[in-house]
Amino acid sequence: MKFTKMQGIGNDYIYVNCFEEQVTDPGKLSIRLSDRHFGIGSDGVILIKPSKTADCEMDMYNADGSRGKMCGNGIRCVGKYVYDRGICRKNPLRVDTQSGIKTLYLQVENGAVQSVRVDMGAPVLEPENIPVQLPGSHAVNVPYSVAGKEQHITCVSMGNPHCVLFVPDTDSLDLEKIGPNFENAPIFPERVNTEFIQLISRTEIKMRVWERGSGETLACGTGACASVVACVLNDKTERRVRLHLLGGDLVVTWDEKTGHVFLEGPAAFVFDGTVEV
Ligand SMILES: N[C@@H](CCC[C@H](N)C(=O)O)C(=O)O
Q1: CATH of 2-120+265-274, one of 1.25.40.10, 3.10.310.10, 3.10.450.50, 2.60.120.560
Q2: Is 155 labeled as catalytic in the residue annotation?
Q3: pLDDT of residue 147 exceeding 90
Q4: Count of alpha carbons within 13 Å of 6, Cβ hemisphere only?
Q5: Do domains 2-120+265-274 and 127-259 have the same CATH topology?
Q6: Using one digit for the tens of pLDDT, what is the confidence trace for 31-62?
Q7: What is the pTM of this model?
Q8: pLDDT greater than 90 at residue 135
Q9: Best mutation site among 42, 193, 210 for ligand 1, i.e. most ligand atoms within 8 A of its Cβ?
């Protein structure tokens, strides 16, 4: 099977062009190929498929084989893949996902996509639709004890579930230890992605992320969007914010007029390869 490794500020996935290839068990394939010692090494696998309703479809799997409904860094790479490789030379591009069709605005230089602005749609804030089981009817700045430590969490869905909290310093966090406590906390029936935010100014924040199904990654696009929504809801930032993540920077805007969240960042090829399946 032919594959392409791509990355969006270090959030790396193995992309399979399902216009040409067939994958029978993507979850199992993702577990095997994502392994950084015995496989190719990645945060998961993304299938690029034909679509009847959009220009193509993105189907994403985490490193543990679970399916993700949306992937902000992945969808920018899908845009670059289909545009640069001539599968669909449209701009804007419409990509179908498990959480609906997203529109991508491509920044093209010398015929190749450099960065992408994605209309990620409106965030979901009702606890039952995130889903998170909290005593009240809102999920903003809720006190909740994780592994014996009281936190204030804000929960947001960007098509996939996120839990955001503010910390004084992201560098000193032991995410390998605390990440799984959030991911598997009983209030999250479908597990959760967790973002740890350090405020720098009203327009700039630092973020580290523990992703459901993949552990700590260098970046998470949906996590960046959920974090800016949480910052605005907690009156910590303006609606347009630059985020510094371990793998680089993203810019997120929560547009007041439409209520939609826009994600901007780069997308890059790493290498092409062939693997036995
Ligand atoms: N890294 C992604 C999110 C991938 C899916 C997530 N782990 C989930 O299971 O919801 C991004 O850039 O958004």
Answers
A1: 3.10.310.10
A2: no
A3: no
A4: 27
A5: yes
A6: 999 999 999 999 999 999 999 999 999 999 99
A7: 0.98
A8: no
A9: 193
Superfamily of domain 127-259 in the CATH hierarchy: Diaminopimelate Epimerase; Chain A, domain 1 (3.10.310.10)
Mean of the pLDDT values across residues 5-20?
A: 98
Rounded distance from Cα 47 to ligand 1 centre (Å):
14
Ligand 1 mean position, distance from CA 222 (Å): 6
Which one of the listed residues 155, 163, 220, 225 is annotated catalytic? 220
Q: Judge residue 173's burial from the number of C-beta atoms within 10 Å of its C-beta, 0-12 exposed, 13-18 middle, 19 or more buried.
A: middle
Domain ranges of the chain: 2-120+265-274, 127-259
pLDDT digits (tens, 9 = 90+) for 83-96: 999 999 999 999 99
**Which atom belonging to ligand 1 lies closest to the Cα atom of 220?**
12
Strand-pairing partners, residue 146, are: 149
Percent share of the chain, pLDDT over 90: 98
State the amino acid at position 147 in one-letter form: A
ipTM over 0.90: yes
Listed in sequence order, the DSSP H helices in the chain are: 26-34, 72-84, 175-183, 221-233
For residue 4, list its beta bridge partners. 15, 272
